Amino acid sequence: MPANISDIIQLIYTILLLPFYLYFTYQLGYQIFIRKNKELRNEYYPLLFYKGIIDNTTIIVMFLTSRIQKFNVFDDFFLNNNFLAYILYFTTGLTFSNMFFIAFFISFNRFIALCHPIKYKSYFSLKKLSIYIFSMALIGIIIGSWAITYKVHYVWNKEAKRVSGVFINPNNAYFNSVLTIFLYFPLLIFTSIFNVITFLKYRSIKSHSSKNPSINKVEYRLFFYNVVSFLVMIAFEIYYIFRYFPYVLGNLAYLEAIAIQSLSWMVDIMTYGLFITSLSLSKVLYNLMRSSKKRVLVINCGFKTDSR
């Protein structure tokens, strides 16, 4: 099937946005780890840097091993190189799980910051944050490695008229269903609890700090990003339910078709969507995109800047 207009639109904004996201991630990492920028080398921005690594890895691998097939190019190459399908499913197993973890830790970060500020450094020191990130990566590697224990090949999909990477052993649906129920769903529950409690605390702080609107504005922007991230992860959980439960239940195959068609859009919202949201809410992050030469003085958690 020739690429449709939505595929072309996705290709265009990927070509436009991917270089910017790569540059942003590089600049953020450079400021945190090389320049040791005190305003960015804290307990929050390294999470966004790690998210940038996860997002860009997902985008690049999915494009080179899956999305490009929508344009019917290199079909024979993919059909003769099934190892690329293993790279695809290992990577997505790792990165998709880490997207859930990152959303959880960001919500937990704001929960501790607002509700238990005295304990904030105990939970989110740079050392603890490094442990969290290492743990997320390790669990993701385990999930990705387990995913590719199921045989996967590139095949010609007659209905879609394109090459697709598919699991030859459909029992992987049970594996992903277990992940959905016992890992991703609990993470969403805890994330929602943290967000609700944080919101109630934010309202309380807002009512008692009306004389300091800058604090309200900062916390509102941080909380708004958390909410957007949380809503996106709910959509991704629904994808997993639609994608794998029909096989386990032996029914509702149309839900699986919906999930497959919507995956690329969900991934783009989780990556580009949250990236653009973070830039629109944080001037210090926006300035990283504008110029690496400008000196940025960050005030109030990076949401009020003075460029010189």
From TrEMBL:
Superkingdom to which the source organism belongs: Eukaryota
CDD domains in the cross-refs: 7tm_classA_rhodopsin-like
Source species taxonomy: Eukaryota, Metazoa, Ecdysozoa, Nematoda, Chromadorea
A Pfam family recorded for this sequence: 7TM_GPCR_Srv
Protein name: G_PROTEIN_RECEP_F1_2 domain-containing protein
Record-linked InterPro entries: 7TM_GPCR_serpentine_rcpt_Srv, GPCR_Rhodpsn_7TM
Organism: Parastrongyloides trichosuri
Keywords, alphabetical: Membrane, Transmembrane, Transmembrane helix
Primary localization: membrane
Cell location: Membrane
SUPFAM superfamilies from the UniProt entry: Family A G protein-coupled receptor-like (SSF81321)
GO cellular component: membrane
Transmembrane segments: 12-33, 45-64, 84-108, 129-148, 181-202, 223-242, 262-286
Domain G-protein coupled receptors family 1 profile residues, every copy: 26-286
